Amino acid sequence: MARKKLIAANWKMYKTPAEAKAFVDAFLPLVAGHTRDEIALFPSPVLLPTVIAAAKDSNVAVGCQNIHFAEEGAYTGETSVGQLIAVGGTHTLIGHSERRQYFAETDEIVNKKLHTALKHGIVPIVCVGEVLAEREAGKTESVLKTQVTGAFANITAEAAAPIVIAYEPVWAIGTGKTATPEMAVEAHKIIRAEVTKLLGADVAAKMRILYGGSVKPDNATALCGQEEIDGALVGGASLKPDSFTAIVKY
């Protein structure tokens, strides 16, 4: 069966509310009527109310770059899933490589966040990927298997339907380096095989696996045109309406 592709924008720690609104106001007319793919924006938490209001009644979803696994509590600086839902967010990134690298997120934490997102009906995009040293040491497959297995601990096939995975080779994020389509497809096949082992062939066949890592207008077609690649998680090239539109319309 054909999986509907998802093109997602991770704005990281960029944009003021005014800049975010200006982006959405410029972007929505450019993608109006675009139904081939799903589109989602992931702004900084402080921008969520602005972006959600600006994108209301459009074909663009809005999510958070991170959630905490606890439903509430004394976790200064964190965003709860209830807060995300209250402002109208529908998606969340989980385990982005920068969260793993700079904030010590482990596979166990990713798993706890995934359980929380699924419990509350939030669409989770679970990020996995190897660093350059791991790829050069021939450990890509083992790293991906470990991350997927850890993230999916105690997740049932029945609960897994909303999950999206994003394969992001860490060495290709913000570096200008990009995995070739062949390298990306190989990694996606490893991930899908692991999901098959954990949750069954039917779940794996339906689960979307995005590619993330220096996706730009000039390589989006080569990457997203692959049958095994179900869309893109876009960083820097998603910060301008015209470049992100070009990727959406690859």
From TrEMBL:
The keyword Isomerase applies. It catalyses: D-glyceraldehyde 3-phosphate = dihydroxyacetone phosphate. Gene3D superfamilies: Aldolase class I. Its EC number is 5.3.1.1. The active site is at residues 96, 168. InterPro entries: Aldolase_TIM, TIM_sf, TrioseP_Isoase_bac/euk, Triosephosphate_isomerase, Triosephosphate_isomerase_AS. GO terms for molecular function: triose-phosphate isomerase activity. Transmembrane segments: none annotated. PROSITE patterns: TIM_1, TIM_2. It comes from the Bacteria. Pathway: Carbohydrate biosynthesis; gluconeogenesis; Carbohydrate degradation; glycolysis; D-glyceraldehyde 3-phosphate from glycerone phosphate: step 1/1. Substrate binds at residues 10-12, 174, 214, 235-236. It is an enzyme of class 5 (isomerase). GO terms for biological process: gluconeogenesis; glyceraldehyde-3-phosphate biosynthetic process; glycerol catabolic process; glycolytic process. GO terms for cellular component: cytosol. It is found in: Cytoplasm. Keywords: Cytoplasm, Gluconeogenesis, Glycolysis, Isomerase. HAMAP family: TIM_B. Homodimer. Belongs to the triosephosphate isomerase family. Involved in the gluconeogenesis. Catalyzes stereospecifically the conversion of dihydroxyacetone phosphate (DHAP) to D-glyceraldehyde-3-phosphate (G3P). This is Triosephosphate isomerase. It comes from Telmatobacter sp. DSM 110680. The gene is tpiA.
